[in-house]
Amino acid sequence: ARSKAAVVAHDPDRRQRQTLVPATSSSNATAPGGPLPPLLPHTPNPEHQAWNNRVNEAVKNITGVDETAARQILNEIVVKGDEVHWDDIAGLEQAKTSLKETVVYPFLRPDLFKGLREPARGMLLFGPPGTGKTMLARAVATESQSTFFAISASSLTSKYLGESEKLVRALFALARALAPSIIFVDEIDSLLSTRNDTGEHEASRRIKTEFLVKWSDLAHAAAGKEHKDGDDAQRVLVLAATNLPWAIDEAARRRFVRRQYIPLPEPETRKKQIETLLKYQVHDMSEGEIDTLVELTDGFSGSDITAVAKDAAMGPLRALGEALLSTPRDQIRPVKFIDFEASLKNIRPSVSKEGLQAFEDWALKYGSSG
Ligand code: ADP
């Protein structure tokens, strides 16, 4: 699954589908008169069993949290499986280094990160859409062996509206109980924007307040070294992503001690990504053609490049028309440079030059270097 992770297209429902881990595993009832042969296709996975035990223990110990909300978090928000590793992400070396220092090492070696080395409680990843922010968050969770809670802020203010406050409380309580934890909030701007202060949406304002309060509690608990069994506030980090960093209000922005710019890919990064995408595809592209492709994709994001490659890979099949149905696989021609040229006519970069400038300006003003 390692290399696959790098080539799957952005699919917002994917997370949802991959969440698993039923928190309560119904015990297989044994019928009277002898055990029945196992009917269920899933044999108990010892790893999941261990996880379930841990979850049940955690849920038992936390108080003041709505049980339905807690279950909802465990079923829909906790991500398990289909791991992303650093190597799956092309380039972004600076961001990887920064994330290792801010999250991964402190989570793995909490004994070394105390006092002045106290880890950050919040980190913001900002930049154009489709540049790998979500992938980075997933890789951080894998590499730091953390429980990964992934929620999009816009779903808090729409899909879950009404139960959002309960959900936010349950989210933070569970993150602390199941630490080390990463709370990944995508589209954080829709939760922490200045717009929410103007009373436009009373309900969203309340969720914002609840989120900020629970986040502060985390910092206080961590500073107070309240490290009880089943509550490890020091190893919980809010990692957020946004394509609209300027929409976040000032007070909220300051809480993200680190603000990491995730830029459009550099030529070397685009080359690496293109090579990865072509690795499992029959193609006859020369080194020179790949280099030309790298030049032609200047201004493209990682997800734009994935889209181009997927479209180009369809080229040989499109050329066949209806004959596709009867052509043996080994007679289908390889993907060629002309396929990419054709795809590039239809798929254009999703970020404009002006749009990009806005990110660079914001990065200069508010981004953290290093
Ligand atoms: P973001 O969260 O920044 O909007 P994602 O992390 O969701 O972007 O990336 C969307 C898709 O684009 C990924 O699933 C992947 O296919 C591709 N992609 C983006 N950046 C990279 C990268 N640096 N390396 C490999 N694939 C990438």
Automatic annotation (TrEMBL):
Residues 18-27 have a biased composition (Polar residues). Residues 1-9 have a biased composition (Low complexity). Residues 34-44 have a biased composition (Pro residues). Residues 119-266 form the AAA+ ATPase domain. Belongs to the AAA ATPase family. This is AAA+ ATPase domain-containing protein. It comes from Lipomyces tetrasporus. The lineage of its organism: Eukaryota, Fungi, Dikarya, Ascomycota, Saccharomycotina.
